[in-house]
Amino acid sequence: MRHDAIRHLCLAAAIAFTAGCASTGASAPSGADPSASSHSAMTNKGQANLSLAQNYLAAGQLEYAMDRANRALRSDPNSADVQLVLGLIRQRLGDEPRAGEHFARAARLAPDAGHVLNVHAVWVCQQGKAAEADALFARAVQDPFFKAKETAYFNAGKCAMTVGQADKAARYYRQGLELAPENKVLLTQMAELQLQRGDAMSARAFYQRRESLGAPSASLFELGARIEDAAGDRAAAARYRQRAQEQSPAPTTPAPEASRQP
To answer: What is the pLDDT of residue 32?
Structure first.
């Protein structure tokens, strides 16, 4: 299994700021490349088991995921990526202390690996340690082999927002957009942040950049409506709400019960 595959799974979890890694709700930044100098080479058996653990984790089959990850751990005890997957599994199981132990161990095994530091930083921020997480994100983007640095900037911005540091968050999002100017997640987040800061014109500019990339959703149109409300364009807001309604799934009507024969 190539290292970039595990990074995509872990980074999806980090982007979502969730306890698992099955869903992000939006396209996560991608492009993480392996950092061979940051990892011990894995055995073929370890690679195979870790790949299966990932697949089971993505499918929500946690018991099987844990079994395969533990097999990978037995054959490759010094693999940072095995520790990351074990941490993600523990999070899905609601075992935050042990998840943190795995993430910290991964960081010790690969102290300069951007993808490892990024995931560890997300967990640290979730524990209410924003300043510590900020330092880890800063280290993550220093890794020359970490090609998804926009992911770390996104997560650093989200973390800054948890402690009310909107200016710092905006700076991180802009740094991410410098690296990935067409990243839909970052553009949406920047539009939302500018709206919260009361800058409707800037929010509109970021929103329009995001909208031009396609793949709209009802939530995206709702954001557009709120931006136009703030900008004073009621007609545009109404059009966005109409589009949001058209995008939303139609409500299902319960089937009538079959009449009972006496």
So the answer is: 32
